[in-house]
């Protein structure tokens, strides 16, 4: 899904390298989720039920649009 690429690729390039190892592992777990779920999470339509996933989703939300 192109919309997810627009969020995830800049995050991967600019923020991911600075994450703690546990958050990096959460990121890779997140990528196993359904695209539609991730899209809803990033648009704040809903939150993941899994608290570990919610943590990385929040990090991505907080950094979306801030990458240069």
UniProtKB/TrEMBL annotation:
<dbReference type="InterPro" id="IPR036714">
    <property type="entry name" value="SDH_sf"/>
</dbReference>
<protein>
    <recommendedName>
        <fullName>FAD assembly factor SdhE</fullName>
    </recommendedName>
</protein>
<dbReference type="GO" id="GO:0005737">
    <property type="term" value="C:cytoplasm"/>
</dbReference>
<dbReference type="InterPro" id="IPR005631">
    <property type="entry name" value="SDH"/>
</dbReference>
<dbReference type="InterPro" id="IPR050531">
    <property type="entry name" value="SdhE_FAD_assembly_factor"/>
</dbReference>
<comment type="similarity">
    <text>Belongs to the SdhE FAD assembly factor family.</text>
</comment>
<keyword id="KW-0143">Chaperone</keyword>
<dbReference type="Pfam" id="PF03937">
    <property type="entry name" value="Sdh5"/>
</dbReference>
<keyword id="KW-0963">Cytoplasm</keyword>
<dbReference type="GO" id="GO:0006105">
    <property type="term" value="P:succinate metabolic process"/>
</dbReference>
């Amino acid at each position: 899904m192109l919309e997810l690429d627009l969020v995830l690729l800049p995050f991967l390039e600019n923020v991911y390298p600075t994450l703690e190892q546990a958050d990096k592992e959460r990121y890779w777990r997140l990528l196993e989720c359904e695209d539609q779920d991730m899209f809803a999470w990033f648009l704040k339509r809903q939150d993941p039920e899994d608290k570990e996933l919610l943590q990385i989703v929040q990090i991505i939300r907080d950094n979306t649009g801030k990458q240069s």
